[in-house]
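Proteins fold reproducibly. Look at a sample protein:
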Amino acid sequence: MNQFTKQIIITAEQTGKEKSTDDAFLNAYLLDPISVALERRRPAVIICPGGGYEHLSDREGEPIAMQFLSMGCHAFVLHYSLAPDVFPYPQMELAYAVSLVRSHAAEWMVDPEKIIVCGFSAGGHLACSLGAYWNQEFLYKPLELAPEDIRPDGMILAYPVITSGPFCHSGSFLNLLGSDSGNETLRRLVSLEYQVGAHTPRTFLWHTSTDNSVPVKNSYLLAEALTEHGVNVEMHIYPEGGHGLSLATSEVSGEDGRYIVPLCQNWISLAKTWLEHL
């Protein structure tokens, strides 16, 4: 991989954001063409790590990118804006990242119809937000883009934050909405079970029944809403495992081993099969 990684800065000016924190950036991991398939266009997966819109989990960034590279996908890790920046700035940065990858499809050998967003926990909320909002003017117009520029072609969501209702992860919405976290109209807008529709791309979803941070009800609510709108959804609910498992392997666990859950480790191979049929 001659261009194994490149860092692309997403400036405040590009997303129309009033600068309050550091610029967002995108780490790109690009596979070189192979000799027998020099013109092959590959899927691209844009990864949004979790962290409650307060920090970014490195366990859900590069280790995940390495897995997608091994599947023959280009991988990108988005370092998006966090508190005190608020909605919709992170969503605009992900939208811009999708448009950036699509606009460089020829140069980077990306299939422009196979750009997938992948998110963990609050990053799952961010990824699903784009699946819900890509055709809404408030998101694409400030970027001076068309809806089709920012449209994701699929979503891979791991233990995602979805609802701002009774089963919410309150910290994520406090950080995402800031001083407006009590605004009921805005809270409904970011409660994604109400925002997805027939326009939302096909979805791969997994969670654990024993998640004590983001209740599994978040995934059930999303899957039900997607199904009602006729969206293709594949969901896996594992009977055990805490929150933030990432790959659930020793690679992403410390000495205490609390993130090692063998039962959950096959989610990435299931996602590979799902990607092959995208």
About this structure: The chain has a mean pLDDT of 94.
